[in-house]
Amino acid sequence: MSENPDLTNERASGTFETNAMAAVIYGSEKFAQRRREITEAISKIPEFQDSHPLVFMSREEKISEACRKLAVLSNYWNSLIDTSDEEEALHLYREVLGLEGHPLALHETMFIPSLIAQASDEQQEKWLGRAQRREIIGCYAQTEMGHGTNLRALETTATFDISTREFILNSPTITSLKWWPGALGKSANWSIVIANLIIKEHNYGPHPFMVQLRDEKSHEPLPGITVGDIGPKMAFNGADNGFLGFKNYRIPRENMLMRHSKVTSDGSYIKPPHAKIGYSSMVKVRSRMAMDQGLFLASALVIAVRYSAVRRQGYLEDKSREVKVLDYQTQQHRLFPSIARAYAFIFCGFETIRLYDQLLIDVQNGNTSGMADLHALTSGLKSVVTYQTGEGIEQARMACGGHGYSMASYISEIYGVAIGGCTYEGENMVMLLQLARYLVKSIEMIQNGKSRELGPMVAYLAENESEIDLNLGPNEYLKVFEYAARNQTWRATEKFQKLRNSGMSNEEAWNQASVELTRASRLHTRLYIMSTFINHVGSIVDQKVKGVLIDLLNVHVTYEVMDIGIYVQGLLSSNQMDLIRNQLYVSLETIRPNAVSLVDSFQISDMQLRSVLGRRDGNVYENLFKWAKSSPLNKTDVLPSVTQYLKPMMEKSKL
Ligand SMILES: CCCCCCCC(=O)SCCNC(=O)CCNC(=O)[C@H](O)C(C)(C)COP(=O)(O)OP(=O)(O)OC[C@H]1O[C@@H](n2cnc3c(N)ncnc32)[C@H](O)[C@@H]1OP(=O)(O)O
Ligand SMILES: Cc1cc2nc3c(=O)[nH]c(=O)nc-3n(C[C@H](O)[C@H](O)[C@H](O)COP(=O)(O)OP(=O)(O)OC[C@H]3O[C@@H](n4cnc5c(N)ncnc54)[C@H](O)[C@@H]3O)c2cc1C
């Protein structure tokens, strides 16, 4: 069937090449091209198609479908991608497996990265190749039923038995059961387990251990291990998140991951070069989250923007034909700032992935000085990005009206998966407070006359306000954000210090200032996102692409400043606020002809989107009807439940 002419016209009005934009989004022409090649190759392999729509499947069917595809994938893996390229592998997974989770998700995102960052060379020799060849399936078991955030209160123990040179793993209470790890429930046969290291009754705190959970032949749990699935979740139901308990389960000394901390055979403990080095797997995932979430938001926007260009409802001036809902200013205000955010998040994502890769090299060379900075940055970024992604996806759903609420849109699934990110890898408030520690320390450095020692990301905290001339463009908006973040960070810090100086304990003063502190962290992070966006656009060579991204940046800066209006009241007059508001409305109009091309440029295939509303060809209505007819409820005209309950009830009522 040919493309819906409404979408053809939208595409014709675009002022740039979507392939050129994709090269900017995905960091290089080479990778953008590889993505397209991989997508094309996959589309020719029928076994990769869903056997029927995922939304009609039970959890068991979803997991089985994911396993079927993984088995097929193993036949094609080497021919489809460069297996040493993480981005290519993740693109392949997204295309084939989608976003509802699968048994290898944690294997790739945490198990292998933990082995790379935490295992010694000999341990990597033993396990890394096996993991990379997928001879074993691993997961990352840290969170317990009773504690996820407060890692120092984990209860699982790994006690060193000097006589046998083994660790004995135990889960002493119900609350110490590992709870939540993805792929643990039914799929993984190995796990990195985080347990308290105990030597001669001294607790050295949480450390990573390589633990075999299931027999490699029978897949049965090994004696001393209790393991299973934790049940259905809000989303991610293609994943078997699990529980895990240990009863006097022994592993060799060599199974503690010993790149950094070590236990020798006589039970001596060797400290790591940085106390939090064992947390690096979390930093790794957090450093990827701006990119992953940017793509979740992008997926919802591809659906909502394409659908809004084919959905006609109501009239503007021309009463002869209903208008595309995308022409309403309210619809544009609902969607376009989110398009800008999705671009900004992806740009930030590439930056933090690069920073993590650099940090990994530095740490391997014994230099841990960058850890605190990246921890602070990624803590704030994961929190702001996941929250705003959730907001943006929900707006995208509402922008699709009634059909947005149908699973045919697939937006609710994207939403459920994306907002999981507000919780996993550190609950958002907790992570904002981690960043706040860093900001408060920065203010204390300024107070102590050490402004010169501040890193580049916090140097603005020591500066004074300057006059703002909004006509000068995005950099002036950046100054507005700096003002807001600086003011709020000083205010929150001073509140904390005042409470502490009044005699309150450090912890209680922190708690009583914590809402203000999280606000400072959000503003600081939003400033970082804006400045990354501005820098990125500044570096673009293709003039047509750059022109459109400058328009999108204008949407971003004006929307973001309006959104934080309350924090800039002391800086901007009401006339200036009016000016910004008007600039935002002008920017929405300017971006309108490029809206469909901007979302097309994410190059997310129909196979990955799984959305009837977001189809590239825009043929929504006929496919919506086809989709509804494929509902299992429509297999028969009269359901057994009608025959069994409703009919007798109606018959009885007749008497
Ligand atoms: C496909 C789908 C994928 C889904 C994957 C999901 C996988 C998971 O969810 S795995 C589980 C993730 N779990 C978490 O993220 C738990 C969150 N909790 C934490 O990270 C910690 O407990 C945390 C950071 C809150 C507190 O740790 P704690 O050891 O008590 O440290 P705390 O006393 O608060 O801070 C001590 C110092 O360490 C620093 N620090 C903490 N973490 C780090 C780090 N990673 N790097 C560097 N420094 C760090 C702090 O900044 C602080 O510095 P300072 O004293 O100078 O201010
Ligand atoms: C989809 C999904 C996948 C997951 N996958 C894994 C996995 O593979 N492996 C794994 O080990 N874990 C996994 N987890 C667990 C996840 O990492 C934890 O749930 C998460 O870290 C939050 O911890 P918690 O559940 O203890 O929340 P809690 O800490 O109990 O949070 C409850 C509330 O308390 C607040 N709170 C807690 N502490 C503080 C504080 N100090 N200051 C202020 N407020 C506070 C929080 O902000 C929150 O509002 C997964 C979770 C989900 C949802």
Tell me what the structure shows.
- There is one protein chain.
- Helix content is 54%, strand content 8%.
- The protein is of the alpha+beta class and 655 residues long.
- The longest helix has 36 residues.
- The model has no long low-confidence stretch (mean pLDDT 96).
- Bound molecules: octanoyl-coenzyme A (CO8) and flavin-adenine dinucleotide.
- Flavin-adenine dinucleotide binds next to β1 and α13.
- This is Acyl-coenzyme A oxidase.
- GO terms for molecular function: acyl-CoA oxidase activity; ATP binding; FAD binding.
In short:
Residues 18-137 form the Acyl-coenzyme A oxidase N-terminal domain. The protein has 655 residues and is an alpha+beta fold. It contains 22 helices and 11 strands.
Q: What value does the Rg take, in angstroms?
A: 27 Å
Bound molecules: octanoyl-coenzyme A, flavin-adenine dinucleotide
Known CATH architecture of the domain at 138-272: Beta Barrel
Mean pLDDT: 96
Overall 3D shape: globular
Strand content: 5-15%
Largest sheet, strands/sense/barrel: 6 strands, mixed
Structural class: alpha+beta
Corresponding CATH superfamily of the domain at 138-272? Butyryl-CoA Dehydrogenase, subunit A, domain 2
Helix content: 40-55%
Quickly name the level 1 CATH class of the domain at 138-272.
Mainly Beta
**Count of alpha and pi helical runs:** 22
Give the distance, in angstroms, between the N- and C-terminal Cα atoms.
54 Å
Q: Low-confidence runs (pLDDT<50, min 5 residues)?
A: none
How many DSSP-defined strands?
Answer: 11
Cofactor: FAD
Binding site for FAD: 143, 182
Keywords: ATP-binding, FAD, Fatty acid metabolism, Flavoprotein, Lipid metabolism, Nucleotide-binding, Oxidoreductase, Peroxisome
Main location: other
